[in-house]
Design brief:
The structure is a single chain. By secondary structure, the chain is mostly helical. It has one domain. It is elongated, with a radius of gyration of 18 Å.
């Protein structure tokens, strides 16, 4: 865990696009009041969007795995 502002510009852009910034960076920004109300709503909306994407992907992979699962016996 480290501040994303310390990364080079290109790597920072990639880090901001990934869902993992919400585990540390976004809550700290909200707690210290470094973002306004509009930006806070946008940060939370991005995390909700990633939640939906990852839950959908996990559900699809789980159903695909169940279709391939064969069990025999007790």
């Amino acid at each position: 865990m480290f501040p994303l502002q310390m990364l080079p510009d290109r790597l920072r852009a990639v880090a901001y696009a990934l869902p993992f910034q919400g585990t540390f960076h976004t809550p700290v920004q909200l707690y210290f009041g470094r973002v306004g109300a509009g930006e806070a709503a946008a940060l939370i909306a991005v995390q909700v969007l990633w939640l939906g994407i990852l839950c959908t992907a996990a559900t699809l992979l789980l159903h695909r795995g169940f279709r391939r699962l064969d069990t025999y016996g007790g």
